[in-house]
TrEMBL record:
SMART domains: Alpha-mann_mid. It comes from Crepidotus variabilis. Pfam families: Alpha-mann_mid, Ams1-like_1st, Glyco_hydro38C2, Glyco_hydro_38C, Glyco_hydro_38N. One of its GO terms (cellular component) is fungal-type vacuole membrane. Belongs to the glycosyl hydrolase 38 family. It catalyses: Hydrolysis of terminal, non-reducing alpha-D-mannose residues in alpha-D-mannosides. Degrades free oligosaccharides in the vacuole. It comes from the Eukaryota. Residues 1-22 are annotated as: Disordered. InterPro entries: Ams1-like_N (IPR054723), Gal_mutarotase_sf_dom (IPR011013), GH38_C (IPR041147), Glyco_hydro/deAcase_b/a-brl (IPR011330), Glyco_hydro_38_C (IPR011682), Glyco_hydro_38_cen (IPR015341), Glyco_hydro_38_cen_sf (IPR037094), Glyco_hydro_38_N (IPR000602). This is Alpha-mannosidase.
């Protein structure tokens, strides 16, 4: 018995008698809630002259003896370079001086004299707070770091004086301050309000200070302890421990006893581990090797948003230089950074800083990510534009850093197309990071880590961080959320902590890196928090998931688009930007096709493929696709810039086209209303270059009819009322061939469906041909009839037409159209109808709509042709609107109730389509009340359907049987004048026999967006394209579309200019895709004049994949062709590279 008791006591290390027999104390039980509340009094607040805040700085001087300031303010909104600024006349300045207004730049020359006795201190800092953003340079112009003034959470106002300067007692440097905050200069401080263009700032601080480093250490200790207390459940031992220690620290701290700080810090080691701080970055080497949360520094810099592009250029330099500075002090710090465009700006405007970034990239600490030109919107860019985002992005990273990216990165884009997985893989990446769907305002997205499977079946490994932000502050709460909010813990228990201030730039702060070290120290000895690591890349994070989930086999899948249940107004906001995007994309496609052909006729230097010019234009289009520009959610200044860029693209693109046409169609002139009338006379002829690969017929307009020669006049089957213009019908073959205006063949003649029009002149008219008929009665579309089938498409008692909705979203004005808008329709009436074309080739009426202060003039026309040449194709009704838009917070749409029943409607997306519900069964269905589509939206049932085609609009909806296209919004934030003023746009209503899959809607959408390019050829001349007999055509599979024809990315155009015999071979790259979602076996037929010697399939980067067998026609006559057999799966995108014979030229033709 005795020996047992002895053993028991020894086993627990107790000695006899340590537990007192008597107890007259009150005991130590706390009132936990009061203790917790007390912790809020250790910094700042009511006791700031007694608590820790009172000792954070040992010394502070701001007098002229120690700090000398001189300033020069750049005139207006100019942004001079460092060198330019230094040549100006500076005047003396002082703390407290005001400067402004908004967006102006101010340069400061600063010299500081450091008191000799400050040499004893570990650190001396200059604290500069202009209330706005700023950048510190050396006196020879090297950018050192950014400054974020003001008192927000992103404040960073200290610049550490270099030790050698501290010892010398004197230091000079230069500061550029810019009159905007991290989030621009919003009116009344509400983030999304338009900018206050007249804000002035005050230089709040220009002080030389000695920070009490130990006190700052304690501040961060205490901060981490408080986060532990506030984050962890109250019944965990770590939470109680952290609170106990924090409480003791408050008891021990004494502002009059500097040594108390050290004792407080020692107390904190009870939570962070003994001597944790001395370990520095090595703290990450200790503890469990299993990591839950991977920390990666990041800085989301919106390429334009509440500030214009040129301000972003400064933000990039500020934010990135700050990170390089941090890396030198925190070796575990890794920084992932996207957007080739931002790197390119840095390279051009801050070359020394770019070199330092490059060093860190090569050193493996600074990680280019995303592989794209910008973090683009992913709803609206065309498929080809998304390809170019990657091609331009990856090519930039490869040429500058010798390496392409492995992870696609779009944390903030407003929904993600189901075309993406295939494109990401095609660009050489297999991982994808995003998070915006955490903003869904209806349903919670069910996955964190999953296989994202695109419309074609391609998958990428996707992580949507459970931390629900790309601007985490690296708090205990953030780390904890990485696990507690993870939705697939059964498959994977790791998450990415993407931390650092963002949107307006900034990136990680020292305090975040400090916090993470303390958290790591804590998890090395406690199990109640997820473990966190540092020092790795995002690629490594994904590679670990790939490996631990058996290459994704144990992960859930998500199929199709990642629809964002938010920001649905962005498909419509800023109509002119949408139009600029669509029209530029198509113009550049035309330029590339026409120039590819022209560049093969090497009779002069002027026919060298203008790669650089084309790239320049593409870069502008890609830049404007940034995820706050194209969506229409930026301030007005951004749109001024974007319009200029689109203007340049149009000007340069049209000029390039004209130059190529002058090669391919020598001596020709464009057929436009301003053409030289002389050209039409005699036996000159009109030809058309069809930039689509579909054969087509069009009603073309012949200008200056009076002066036309008899030959041309005889082809005109209809003249305008004033006799100035004539209409003729024209057939153009597909395959990039040339059509010629001539008397219709019998076959074409039989296809003409003469049109007629009737109107009462006020509110009633009928447009009709042998296949369709539209009636407007009492100002509304009351009837739409398929004449061939005698089928009425408008349900009895319902009408279609323009409609207005109240549009007052809950907060994000330009971003959101909220579900309630659908409850407030006001149908608008067409009035004052006049006939503007009588038929037989084109019948048209012009109608007016008046609403509020707005005036809308709509020309509704019907042509004698069908939408495509497909048998049984129907004609379409074209609506061209000229709108003077003066509404605010109202939404204009066009709607058509249809006698069709289907649970889904079909919308074009990049390289395919997406189907979305028309009903409201579940909240997931309800959420899709406004959706994105490209060139068409279609509502079909078995046997029949109606599509709406669009040339510049992207917003659609189909609710029940009501199909709508969204035309104009009118938000007032962040651009007070969004969409005010004149607009010109078109859409078309296209009935079709058969369901969508049996229809010609995708082809019609293509043709509708690609008008013929008409040329007038003088008599006796001929074009150079016709002898090619269609350069390229797709045979045997009507569902395979040839989208793009361009010269190879890596061709050597300089050699071409020199006519060098030994030049690298010319290549042609073609991009094709399957458009209907099914397998196809197609033959790509190529004119033998192109002398193809080899062909390869490639990825989107144009790296060879496999060589293709060239099929050659047996005969070797001039019309013989060669071909490639290509098999497709549904929605597959295929890139083919044709290698032409050495020194091949088409000159011999
Ligand atoms: Zn963003």
């Amino acid at each position: 018995m005795d020996s047992n008791r002895q053993g028991y006591q020894h086993g627990h290390g107790h000695s006899h008698g340590s537990y007192p027999q008597q107890n007259y104390t009150p005991g130590a039980k706390w009132v936990k809630s009061l203790t917790r509340d007390r912790l809020g009094q250790f910094t700042g607040g009511h006791y700031s002259d007694l608590n820790l805040s009172s000792v954070l700085f040992t010394h502070r001087v701001d007098n002229a003896e120690h700090v000398k300031l001189k300033v020069w303010s750049a005139p207006g909104l100019t942004k001079p370079t460092f060198e330019e600024a230094m040549q100006q006349k500076f005047k003396s300045a002082k703390k407290g001086d005001p400067f402004g207004p908004s967006w102006t730049n101010h340069w400061w020359k600063v010299s500081v004299t450091i008191p000799e006795y400050w040499q004893q201190y570990e650190r001396v800092q200059f604290e500069f707070d202009p209330g706005c953003e700023a950048m510190i340079f050396t006196v020879d112009g090297t950018p050192l770091q950014g400054i974020t003034g003001g008192y927000g959470g992103d404040r960073r106002v200290e610049y550490i004086i270099p030790p050698e300067a501290r010892e010398a007692g004197y230091h000079e440097f230069v500061i550029e301050s810019s009159c905007n905050g991290m989030f621009g200069v919003p009116m009344n401080g509400d983030t999304i309000q338009p900018p206050d263009m007249n804000r002035y700032f005050t230089l709040d601080s220009a002080d030389l200070v000695v920070p009490n480093q130990e006190a700052w250490g304690l501040l961060w200790d205490f901060q981490t302890l408080r986060e532990l207390v506030d984050t962890l459940p109250g019944n965990t031992s770590l939470q109680n421990k952290a609170m106990t220690v924090a409480n003791q620290i408050m008891n021990v701290f004494d502002k009059n006893d500097p040594s108390s700080i050290g004792r407080c810090r020692k107390l904190a080691e009870e939570v962070f581990g003994k001597d944790w701080e001395e370990k520095g970055a090595d703290i990450y080497e200790e503890g469990s090797s299993k990591t839950n949360v991977w920390g990666v520094g990041h800085c989301h810099i919106d390429t334009a948003w509440l500030w214009p592009y040129h301000v972003t250029q400064q933000k990039v330099a500020r934010s990135w230089s700050t990170q390089i500075d941090l890396m030198d002090r925190y070796p575990e710090h890794r920084f992932a950074c996207s957007s080739a465009q931002q790197y390119k700006w840095l390279e051009k405007l801050y070359p020394e800083l770019f070199e330092r970034v490059k060093e860190k990239v090569l050193d493996g600490r600074f990680h280019p990510i995303g592989g794209a030109w910008v973090e683009n919107d992913s709803n609206m860019p065309s498929g080809e534009a998304l390809v170019r985002q990657f091609l331009f992005g990856q090519r930039f990273f490869e040429t500058r850093f010798g390496k392409r990216c492995e992870t696609a990165w779009l944390p903030d884009s407003f929904g993600l197309t189901g075309a993406y997985p295939q494109l990401i893989r095609g660009a050489g990446m297999k991982y994808f990071f995003t998070q915006k769907l955490s903003w869904n305002n209806i349903n919670v997205f069910p996955h964190s880590t999953f296989n994202w499977v695109g419309i074609d079946g391609t998958q990428v490994l996707c992580h949507m961080t459970p931390v629900d932000t790309y601007t985490a502050q690296a708090t205990v709460g953030d780390v904890n959320k990485g696990l507690t909010n993870h939705k697939n813990l059964e498959s994977s228990d790791t998450s990415l902590l993407v931390f650092g201030n963002g949107d307006g730039g900034g990136g990680p702060l020292a305090k975040m890196l400090e916090n993470l070290r303390r958290i790591k120290g804590t998890t090395n000895t406690h199990r109640e928090l997820p473990t966190v690591n540092m020092g790795h890349s995002v690629d490594e994070f994904f590679a670990e998931i790939e490996q631990s989930t058996k290459e994704g086999k144990t992960l859930p899948n998500w199929l199709g688009e990642l629809y964002l249940e938010f920001h649905r107004g962005t498909y419509t906001s800023h109509g002119s930007i949408k139009k600029g995007n669509r029209h530029s994309e198509i113009l550049l496609r035309d330029v590339e096709l026409v120039w590819t052909l022209a560049s093969l006729y090497k009779h002069s230097k002027s026919s060298v493929y203008p790669k650089e010019k084309i790239d320049e234009s593409w870069e502008k289009v890609l830049l404007n696709q940034f995820h706050d520009v194209l969506p229409g959610s930026a301030i007005g200044m951004v749109y001024d810039d974007a319009e200029v860029l689109y203007g340049e693209v149009k000007r340069d693109g049209e000029a390039l086209l004209e130059k190529a046409f002058s090669v391919l169609f020598p001596q020709s002139v464009p057929v436009t209303t301003i053409m030289r009338t002389k050209a039409l006379t005699g036996s000159s002829k009109i030809v058309a270059f069809n930039t689509t690969f579909f054969p087509r017929w069009d009603i073309v307009t012949i200008p200056c009819l009076v002066k036309a020669g008899p030959n041309l006049k005889s082809l005109v089957m209809q003249a305008t009322e004033d006799g100035r213009e004539g209409f003729a019908i024209m057939h153009s073959p597909g395959g990039g061939a040339v059509g010629e205006l001539k008397h219709p063949s019998n076959a074409l003649h039989s296809q003409i469906k003469p049109v007629s029009v009737y109107t009462n002149g006020s509110d009633h008219f009928v447009l009709r041909n042998a296949c369709v008929q539209l009636t407007i009665s009492n100002g509304r579309i009351s009837s739409l009839v398929d004449v061939k089938l005698n089928r009425e498409l408008i349900p009895e008692g319902q009408t279609g037409g323009l409609v207005i909705f109240q549009d007052r979203p809950n907060y994000w004005d330009a971003w959101d159209v909220e579900i309630h808008h659908l409850e407030t329709p006001t149908p608008l009436q067409f009035s004052n109808i006049s006939v503007v074309a009588q038929g037989p080739l084109r019948a048209a009426v012009r109608a007016e709509v008046q609403y509020g202060q707005s005036r809308i003039s709509v020309t509704i026309s019907l042509d004698a042709t069908t939408a495509t040449i497909k048998p049984n194709s129907r004609s379409l009704f074209n609506f061209s609107a000229l709108v003077d838009w003066r509404q605010r917070h109202e939404f204009l749409k066009f709607e058509l109730p249809l006698n069709i029943n289907s649970p889904f409607a079909t919308y074009e997306t990049q390289f395919g389509f997406v189907q979305r519900p028309t009903h409201k069964n579940t909240t997931w269905d309800i959420a899709k009340f406004e959706v994105c589509g490209h060139k068409f939206a279609d509502f079909s049932e078995f046997g029949y359907g109606v599509a709406i085609l669009s040339e510049s609009k992207y917003g659609f909806s189909c609710q029940g049987n009501m199909l709508r296209i969204s035309l104009l919004r009118s938000a007032t934030a962040p651009d007070a004048e969004q969409d005010q003023g004149e607009h010109f746009f078109s859409w078309a209503v296209m009935p079709h026999e058969g369901s969508f899959l049996e229809s010609d809607v995708p082809m019609a959408g293509y043709l509708y967006n690609s008008p013929l390019r008409l040329r007038c050829l003088p008599s006796g001349t001929s074009d150079l394209v016709s002898p090619l007999q269609s350069p390229f055509s797709v045979e045997g599979a009507s569902n395979v579309f040839l989208e793009t024809v361009k010269r190879g990315e890596y061709d050597n155009f300089e050699h071409e200019a020199n006519f060098d015999d030994k030049a690298t071979p010319a290549t042609i790259v073609l991009r094709l895709y399957e458009a209907f979602g099914g397998h196809a076996q197609a033959k790509l037929s190529i004119s033998s004049h192109l002398s193809v010697v080899k062909a390869f399939t490639t990825n989107l980067m144009e790296d060879h994949d496999e060589e293709l067998y060239l099929l050659r026609d047996a005969e070797t006559g001039p019309d013989s062709r060669c071909g490639l057999s290509l098999s497709f799966r549904g929605f597959e995108v295929k890139t083919v590279k044709l290698v032409l014979a050495h020194n091949s030229t088409l000159l011999s033709l």
